[in-house]
UniProtKB/TrEMBL annotation:
<keyword id="KW-0645">Protease</keyword>
<dbReference type="InterPro" id="IPR022683">
    <property type="entry name" value="Calpain_III"/>
</dbReference>
<feature type="active site">
    <location>
        <position position="252"/>
    </location>
</feature>
<feature type="active site">
    <location>
        <position position="284"/>
    </location>
</feature>
<keyword id="KW-0788">Thiol protease</keyword>
<protein>
    <recommendedName>
        <fullName>Calpain catalytic domain-containing protein</fullName>
    </recommendedName>
</protein>
<dbReference type="GO" id="GO:0005737">
    <property type="term" value="C:cytoplasm"/>
</dbReference>
<comment type="similarity">
    <text>Belongs to the peptidase C2 family.</text>
</comment>
<dbReference type="InterPro" id="IPR022682">
    <property type="entry name" value="Calpain_domain_III"/>
</dbReference>
<dbReference type="InterPro" id="IPR001300">
    <property type="entry name" value="Peptidase_C2_calpain_cat"/>
</dbReference>
<dbReference type="InterPro" id="IPR022684">
    <property type="entry name" value="Calpain_cysteine_protease"/>
</dbReference>
<dbReference type="InterPro" id="IPR000169">
    <property type="entry name" value="Pept_cys_AS"/>
</dbReference>
<dbReference type="InterPro" id="IPR036213">
    <property type="entry name" value="Calpain_III_sf"/>
</dbReference>
<feature type="active site">
    <location>
        <position position="81"/>
    </location>
</feature>
<dbReference type="Pfam" id="PF00648">
    <property type="entry name" value="Peptidase_C2"/>
</dbReference>
<dbReference type="InterPro" id="IPR033883">
    <property type="entry name" value="C2_III"/>
</dbReference>
<keyword id="KW-0378">Hydrolase</keyword>
């Protein structure tokens, strides 16, 4: 459980619930009312929307019916398959969903004590580095008595619909969830470190060695509690080809629910190139469209596998939206994968323990060049070094370093047309071991790493660095763009990550033109300025 939690809109769950029980009324949330403004800012749902409580939709409502499962939920009419795919991933990890749905047993309906039910629920999200508790009422949008957004397979199970409402409240409206990234939702659910990989650009369908490296990486992430989702870009030609698509839906997020090496019996080796197959299991949030190619539910290939092996894999032949495919076929058909690593920081774990450091920062504009902090990417030679700069040390001969840069969530700005992510990235330079001030000119410093520059909320880089001192410079792609960010650094030993602040007063003077000057020696800057601008 998170050690400290902030309250969204300063709403105190226990206090509100106690008031409702004392006054014998059901909670109605004034911060996210059952009205059109909570549904949409531009595009209204088709049909007459009525807000109803679960007790008005079924006889015996529950948060969970027979536990929680990735099979529980379906998308509804909102274009948020990415959110539903993230929920499917979340349902696989009990320790993770119990963080998002705290004290779930206390929140559950109890038919024996209906007087204790107040129509109020709470959920927690990792919002920009801080665990945040969101309180909602249980009024849900329906048309003709049916939930119009995310819902469960079972009509009296409501955890997914209520979780979606809390997430919509955080975003400003349900419509703000129309279009997004499964990786963003998973990060908000868990605080994970997100990495996006372009399978086409990386040529994973063509290069077997890279394909196997990726498989082993995904297998390790999955075994260590990480969450994975994938999708097919609509713009890809192969995504439009119905024959090659074979039941897969372009522009649609899928959750990866299992990754396995399937060992084949000796009697089967004549049919295959290797003794084992590399397999992935996926789930479609729509729940009724599945892969129809090799190793799909009813394919001939499964007949060659023993019943015991099929049972251990959890193979079903139902049209439930979950299916297996070979990793090779997966690389050929999907264009992008989002990997969300649950980075282990516990010293009591059997797995590798990472040292972590998180910093909040901002790209901020200032007319003084030395105070400006939004200089754009490396290509902007004159302004690049005006960006925020962070120093860290690598203490070992070599150390694997994980870097995550996350920009502020912009979904709440969608209604004013400013909801798109900014293109961001970062550079890492190896600098002098004794450097204690900002870079103002690149001379002997070595540029050792460059992240992808992309308009995703999270940018990730994994790099092995040699012992020494480094400066990390997070940037927007274009200069003059302002927003907030968080920077996370994971290393094997403490890195002493810190921000280089502008040095005053001894290291800063004004030159003859009135511009600020900074150097490791304020006196030297002063003498140089006097010499250049005197007489």
């Amino acid at each position: 459980m998170p050690s400290s939690v902030q309250l969204f809109r300063d709403q105190k769950y226990h206090e509100l619930k106690r008031q409702c029980i004392q006054q014998r009324r059901l909670f109605e949330d004034p911060e996210f009312p059952a009205s059109d403004e909570s549904l949409y800012y531009q595009k209204a749902p088709r049909g007459k929307v009525e807000w109803k409580r679960p007790k008005d939709l079924c006889q015996d409502p529950y948060l969970f019916v027979n536990g929680i499962s990735s099979h529980d939920l379906h998308q509804g009419s909102l274009g948020n398959c990415w959110f539903v795919a993230a929920c499917s991933c979340l349902a696989l990890r009990k320790t993770l969903w119990q963080q998002v749905i705290p004290d779930f047993q206390e929140q559950e309906w109890d038919p024996k004590t209906p007087e204790k039910y107040a129509g109020i629920f709470r959920f927690r999200f990792w919002c920009f580095g801080i665990w945040t508790e969101v309180v909602i009422d249980d009024l849900l949008p329906t048309i003709d008595g049916t939930l119009i957004y995310c819902h469960s397979n079972v009509e009296n199970e409501f955890w997914s619909a209520l979780l979606e409402k809390a997430y919509a409240k955080l975003a400003g409206s349900y419509e703000a969830l129309d279009g997004g990234s499964a990786a963003d939702a998973i990060v908000d659910f868990t605080g994970a470190v997100a990495e996006s990989i372009d399978l086409v650009q990386g040529k994973y369908s063509e290069t077997i060695s890279e394909q196997m490296k990726l498989f082993e990486d995904l297998l390790k992430v999955h075994k260590r509690g990480g969450l994975i989702s994938c999708f097919i870009a609509v713009c890809m030609e192969r995504a439009v080809d119905g024959e090659r698509r074979r039941g897969l839906v372009p522009g649609h997020a899928y959750s990866v629910t299992a990754i396995r090496k399937l060992h084949l019996g000796e009697r089967l080796t004549f049919s295959f190139k290797a003794e084992k197959l590399f397999m992935v299991r996926l789930r479609n949030p729509w729940g009724n469209r599945e892969w129809s190619g090799a190793w799909s539910d009813n394919s001939e290939e499964w007949k060659k596998v023993s019943n015991a092996e099929r049972k251990s894999l959890g193979l079903t032949v139902e049209n439930d939206g979950e299916f297996w495919m070979t990793f090779e076929d997966w690389c050929k058909n999907f264009t992008d994968v989002d990997i969300c690593r649950i980075v282990n920081t516990s010293y009591f774990s059997i797995h590798k323990t990472w040292e972590t450091k998180m910093m909040h920062g901002a790209w901020a504009k200032n007319s003084e060049p030395l105070l400006n902090r939004c200089g754009g990417c490396f290509d902007n030679v004159e302004t690049f070094l005006q960006n925020p700069q962070y120093i860290f040390d690598v203490k070992k001969a070599e150390d694997k370093v994980l870097v995550s840069l996350q920009q502020e969530d912009r979904r709440r700005s969608k209604k004013v047309g400013k909801g798109d992510n900014i293109i961001i990235g970062f550079e890492i330079f190896k600098v002098e071991d004794n450097r204690s001030y900002r870079l103002h000119k690149l001379t002997v410093q070595e540029r050792v790493a460059t992240s992808p520059y992309i308009n995703t909320r999270n940018v990730f880089l994994k790099k092995i660095l040699k012992q020494g001192r480094y400066i990390l410079i997070p940037t927007t792609y274009l200069p003059g763009i302002t927003t907030k960010f968080i920077l996370r650094l994971f290393t094997d030993v403490p890195s002493k990550l810190s921000m280089y602040h502008f040095r005053t007063p001894e290291g800063v003077l004004r030159d003859g033109l009135g511009h600020l000057q900074e150097s490791p020696d304020g006196l030297l800057a002063f003498l140089c300025a006097q010499d250049v601008f005197a007489g």
